[in-house]
Amino acid sequence: MPHIDLPFRALSVLHSARYLFNKYGFHNVGVDQIIEAAKIPKAIFYNYFHSKERLIEMSLSFQKDGLKHEVMSIINVQTELTLVEKLRKIYFLHADLDGLYHLPFKAIFEIAKTHPKAYQLVIDYRNWLINEIYKLLLTANENATKPDAHMFLFVIDGAIVQLLDSNSVDDRERLLNYFLVQTM
Description:
Elements (H helix, E strand, L loop, with lengths): L7 H17 L6 H8 L3 H8 L2 H26 L5 H12 L7 H9 L5 H23 L7 H19 L7 H12 L1
């Protein structure tokens, strides 16, 4: 069911679940916590989502769709931006613990074995993003390579790991600048 077709109660559950998954992890949040946070009866939960696994899939699909929309807007709609400005916006869209990418990033480590369909959504998004970054890099440098686009994603992932470390300094800007100097 597309997210736009979901009734308000189902969207409330989705919102509550995404918040709880982000904060506590996929394995540490149960259906009872989700329905309590969403303030709905358990029957409503199962009517819309059927299982926690399906809710995880829908949560990640929601995040993926939002990210794709934002990335496509940066690339195709914000035409006044230079290549570096576009890469910068895409980078900071993803390298943000309060942003849409945090939950898919968390899923990479938590659900590969337990929820393979949901995990595949994340892998598909990451491959899509790599292809979009590669096409973007080619607009400025005909010698750009697919590994350059992979490296951009790795820099995003590294920035998130640093942000998750409470003892670390926010080095996102330095990481991005290092990538740009090496690639451009």
